[in-house]
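Example for tutorial group B:
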């Protein structure tokens, strides 16, 4: 099976999908042609949810590698701003109404 991980016959997979009307089973049977001795066990554990859920996890992992540094930079800049203005008084507002005295730094943290 390891020797055939990248040996994918996409034409056969397309024909199998048309025949079986199921994308995962099409690839299971296509892989079974490459690995006939493993064909009876290939499907074990490989369900549609298995494929879809793992794809979602890969997409989320890749997204986090993009988003997390940006979020960290945003938090760092906000904390620097809050520290810089921690003593600057301002009038706090709630529901667009004047409320109580606070500081710009504290409002930035809120």
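The residue assignment follows.
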């Amino acid at each position: 099976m390891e020797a055939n991980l990248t040996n994918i016959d996409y034409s056969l997979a397309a024909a199998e999908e048309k025949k079986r009307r199921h994308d995962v089973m099409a690839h299971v049977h296509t892989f079974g042609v490459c690995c006939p001795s493993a064909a009876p066990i290939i499907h074990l554990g490989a369900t549609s949810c298995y494929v879809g859920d793992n794809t979602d996890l890969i997409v989320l992992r890749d997204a986090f590698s993009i988003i997390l540094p940006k979020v960290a930079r945003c938090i760092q800049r906000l904390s620097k701003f809050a520290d810089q203005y921690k003593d600057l008084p301002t009038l706090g507002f709630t529901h667009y109404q004047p409320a109580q005295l606070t500081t710009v730094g504290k409002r930035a943290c809120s």
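Helices lie at 10-20, 23-34, 39-42, 48-84, 104-109. Compare this with the pattern of hydrophobic and polar residues in the output above.
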